[in-house]
Design brief:
102 residues
Length: 102
């Protein structure tokens, strides 16, 4: 389950960054690649739904996406997080444990 969610959210994160490049540079290639990424995300999420109900799949998907973007923010954009945000990230990791136990 987590491998599928990781692959899908990684594709989503890359697509987000590529679409941001399109908005900044107006190069059509960025738009096309970003949209293709979102088509792939739909297929990946469909695979995740084979293992989980809709609510659980969405929680896992969104927490995984958030964590990937946090890592990108820290290492690429040099972002800092508050103690409250770090506690939220820890709760996100805890949700993986709690939701993955079936």
């Amino acid at each position: 389950m987590y491998v599928i969610a990781f692959i899908g959210t990684l594709i989503e994160s890359i697509s987000d960054i590529i679409l941001k490049e399109y908005v900044t540079n107006k190069k059509t290639l960025y738009l096309l690649i970003g949209l293709i990424g979102y088509i792939l995300i739909g297929f990946t999420f469909m695979q995740l739904l084979k293992f989980n109900n809709l609510g659980t799949a969405n929680i896992v998907w969104h927490v995984m996406h958030f964590m990937i973007l946090c890592v990108v923010g820290i290492f690429y954009y040099n972002e800092k997080y508050t103690l409250k945000e770090i506690i939220g990230i820890i709760f996100g990791f805890m949700s993986f444990y709690l939701l993955g136990g079936h």
